[in-house]
Design brief:
Elements lengths: L1 E2 L5 E4 L11 E7 L3 H12 L6 E8 L3 H8 L3 H4 L3 E6 L5 H11 L4 E4 L5 E2 L3 H10 L6 E16 L2 E9 L9 H6 L8 E4 L3 H4 L10 H12 L1 E15 L10 H4 L1 H20 L5 H80 L1 H26 L1
Parallel strand pairs: 3-4, 3-6, 4-5, 8-11
Antiparallel strand pairs: 1-2, 2-5, 6-10, 7-11, 8-9, 8-10
């Protein structure tokens, strides 16, 4: 039993300890999700960059089930795996902090147990942070795709995927304060900055990564690699199980914690300096700057109202047109039925008319002869 300095009890299995040849500490948190864990372990093992060490933190999950799952992976991981077991769940950020305290590598990456990396992820990020010209960067992110999936009959089914649209260039501090711009799976940061900014906030049930990223930007910039090298996996809404995402099925909790993070950030700014007046002045200037935009929005609302009214009239016209077309269709059907019955009624007459064709020919010949004789008689009288 190893006791860390935050008094969290853990069991460090003898499958491996940090070695001096690894450059990246990969921290993975898990709890009773074996179906997804297989995929994430494979994601790490398939990295072309091999100087990494995986810290797998079992946050209160079934220890025996996890150890049974890991049995097949131990020969492949060798000494590059450290497993930590929390007897009870301490939360995501506490799990990350436990591994952060144990690791000694130069770089750190958080790899959740449901996400994935492209095989070149670590190679690209470590290469970026190792270049002399990039020493000013405290971390680096990559392009990311969001993979939507569902659990069906004990298997993971991909629904669709799309590019992560909130982080497609260099990370702006102002943008990051407004909202978290990238998921944890995209980021690799220098472990040395943790001494300056502190660990993850264990009081936050969600959005601990956003709070950590804001503090990370306080001490330096975060670079960006444009290649899509990370996969951020979401289960479809309504899963509500151990395989759920907090970002999907915990939307309300995310909103509440977002407000808490913003309020704490403002309090930290105004704690030492009386900046309420400055904030009020900035707010007033923002209101002035936004006035034209508000007018445009009002005009847009009016345009939308008119468009809604017109769409309503168009919808009524369409309904009327549909009604007329239905009536026409009904009339056509009636005409078609009448035509069928008329054809049936006229069929005997048509048959008789065709049978009388020879007689009609003879009558026509007689009529022709009669007309000829009449014409001759008229000629004689005229003489």
């Amino acid at each position: 039993m190893v006791m860390l300095d935050n008094s969290l009890p853990m069991v460090d299995t003898p499958c491996g300890r940090p070695d001096e040849t690894s450059d990246v500490a990969v921290i993975m948190r898990t709890k009773n999700r074996p179906l997804l864990l297989h995929r994430s372990l494979s994601s790490v093992l398939l990295q072309s960059f091999e100087r990494w060490h995986l810290y797998l933190v079992n946050d209160g999950g079934d220890q025996f089930e996890l150890e049974d799952l890991l049995r097949m992976y131990r020969p492949v991981f060798g000494s590059r795996l450290t497993v930590m077991h929390h007897e009870v769940s301490k939360g995501m950020e506490a799990a990350s902090n436990a591994a952060l305290r144990a690791c000694r590598e130069e770089f750190v990456a958080i790899h959740d147990d449901d996400d994935t990396w492209n095989p070149e992820f670590l190679s690209s990020t470590v290469s970026f942070l190792s270049e002399r010209k990039n020493k000013c960067f405290v971390g680096v992110t990559t392009g990311c795709k969001v993979v939507f999936e569902r659990i069906s009959d004990g298997a993971v089914e991909k629904v669709h995927e799309e590019l992560w649209r909130f982080n497609q260039g260099p990370i702006s501090y102002s943008d990051l304060i407004v909202a978290n711009r990238f998921p944890p799976i995209c980021l690799v940061f220098r472990r040395s900055v943790v001494k300056e900014i502190g660990l993850f906030d264990e009081a936050l049930p969600v959005l601990g990564d956003w709070d950590f990223n804001i503090r990370l930007m306080r001490v330096g910039d975060i670079g960006f690699i444009r290649q899509t090298l990370a996969g951020y996996h979401h289960r479809t809404a309504g899963t509500n199980s151990v395989y759920s995402n907090t970002v999907v099925d915990g939307v309300q909790m995310h909103r509440e914690q977002e407000v808490a993070v913003r309020n704490r950030l403002l309090r930290s700014v105004t704690r030492d300096l009386p900046m309420e007046g400055l904030l009020q002045a900035i707010t007033q200037q923002v209101d002035v700057a936004l006035a034209p935009l508000k007018q445009q929005m009002a005009s847009f609302d009016e345009y939308q109202r008119l468009l809604s009214e017109r769409s309503g009239s168009v919808e009524a016209s369409l309904q009327q047109l549909v009604s007329v077309s239905l009536q026409a269709h009904s009339t056509i059907n009636e005409i078609s039925v009448t035509a069928v019955w008329l054809r049936k009624m006229l069929r005997p007459i048509h048959w008789s008319w065709r049978r009388m064709l020879p007689i009609r020919h003879r009558i026509a010949l007689w009529r022709g002869r009669f007309r000829t004789l009449s014409a001759d008689g008229s000629s004689v009288h005229s003489r």
